[in-house]
Amino acid sequence: MNETRHAILEAIADGPVSGPELADDLDISRAAVWKHIETLRKSGFEIESDASGYELTEITAYDGPTVEYGLEAPFSVEYHDSIESTNDRARERATDGESDVAVLADEQVGGRGRLEREWSAPSGGIWVSIISRPEITPASAPLYTLAASVATANAAREAGVDARIKWPNDVVVPVGEDGAYRKLAGILTEMEGETDRIEWLIVGIGINANIDATALPDGATTIREEVGDVDRRLFVQRLLEAFDNHRRDLEGVVPAWRELALTLGQRVRIDRPEGELVGEAVDVTESGALALETDDGRETVAAGDCEHLRPA
Ligand code: BT5
């Protein structure tokens, strides 16, 4: 956000400050103060004004400036009411050389899952794609996906949802005790680079927030369905802050992931290009691969679709 507008918000957040006082403190004209206040109001900051001055009373809007305001992570936020796919837009910005941008949308009309599957993303959800330029090898990139699922699950848990993680990238809500679940969020990581170096990495996170589950495919759940609507602005801020913390401490990601894993201890079937594998999921390795105990011994899988099987 524009620095002057940010300074105005900080000043008027704790009580009324007069226009002349703001103009003096910021070394701008009174007319400029008024213009900035109008711009802020249009961005969704509710600013009251009376004889004692301007006061920030509420932030109701969900958009770029309101998400950036108060965000304790280094991301600039680009917001769209409606977009094809936030991952596609983030790709464009990453290709232009940018980093630490979060592309956010209220609705996606061409949302993508993994392997070109469709992702339903109606208005009311949280659809966000974050650009990073990490100094890690592509082999460690899955840690970014795990970091995003840990950040998502914990943000949902803070909102009161019993969110857990299904390997590798689904945030789910368990149904009963036998490993069944409904899907709350999915993550799509895409990157560009060479064998030993990542140019850019985009983590796309889709969270079914303030949406009726009936608007989504079978097997999906939403935050609305589980606990009622959330303040998406605060939710995204917690999500971006947690993700930023995890990417700065990649060694802590797998231990944090294990704590939330619904998959460990389950009998699973992994569908992968080389063929399917059935066994008990026993651990996740340091690089995020799933370790399975199969009839033929221990196997590790780096990628694939995972299905929880009902106990025999
Ligand atoms: C994923 O794929 O779970 C990754 C989803 C990533 C979405 C985000 S939103 C922001 C960013 N921009 C994008 O365009 N994408 C990312 P996958 O594991 O392949 O799961 C896809 C499958 O989940 C579909 O085939 C459906 O069966 C199901 N599905 C589709 N939409 C869903 C939804 N909203 N909630 C739960 N399940 C859904």
Question: What descriptive keywords fit this protein?
Answer:
about 300 residues, alpha+beta, Arc Repressor Mutant, subunit A, BirA Bifunctional Protein, domain 2, SH3 type barrels, 3 domains, 7-stranded mixed beta sheet, 5-stranded antiparallel beta sheet, 9 helices, 14 strands, about 30% strand, binds biotinyl-5-AMP
What's this model, at a glance?
The chain has 312 residues and is of the alpha+beta class. Helices cover 30% and strands 32% of the residues.
Secondary structure elements and pairings:
Blueprint lengths: L2 H10 L6 H8 L3 H13 L2 E6 L2 E7 L4 H5 L7 E8 L2 H10 L5 E8 L17 E7 L9 H17 L5 E3 L3 E5 L6 E14 L2 E11 L15 H5 L4 H17 L4 H8 L6 E6 L2 E10 L5 E5 L2 E5 L3 E5 L3
Parallel strand pairs: 3-4
Antiparallel strand pairs: 1-2, 4-5, 5-9, 6-7, 7-8, 8-9, 10-11, 10-14, 11-12, 12-13
Helix pairs in contact: 2-3, 6-8, 6-9
This protein binds biotinyl-5-AMP.
Describe this structure in words.
This protein is of the alpha+beta class and 312 residues long. Helices cover 30% and strands 32% of the residues. The chain has three domains: 3-59, Orthogonal Bundle (Arc Repressor Mutant, subunit A); 64-260, Bira Bifunctional Protein, Domain 2 (BirA Bifunctional Protein, domain 2, 2-Layer Sandwich), CATH 3.30.930; 267-308, SH3 type barrels (Roll), CATH 2.30.30. The chain is elongated and about 80 Å long. The chain starts with a helix and ends with a strand.
Name the hetero compounds present.
Answer: biotinyl-5-AMP
Mean pLDDT: 95
| Secondary-structure content class | alpha+beta
By CATH, the architecture of the largest domain is named: 2-Layer Sandwich
Low-confidence stretches: none
Q: In whole angstroms, how far apart are the ends?
A: 56 Å
- Output the radius of gyration: 22 Å
Give the CATH superfamily of the largest domain. Answer: Bira Bifunctional Protein, Domain 2
* Strand-residue proportion: 25-35%
Q: What would CATH call the class of the largest domain?
A: Alpha Beta
The best one-word shape is elongated
Q: Count the E strands.
A: 14
Biggest sheet details: 7 strands, mixed
CATH topology of the largest domain: BirA Bifunctional Protein, domain 2
The helix count comes to 9
Q: H/E order of the elements? A: HHHEEHEHEEHEEEEHHHEEEEE
Strands of the widest sheet, in order across it, are 3-4-5-9-8-7-6
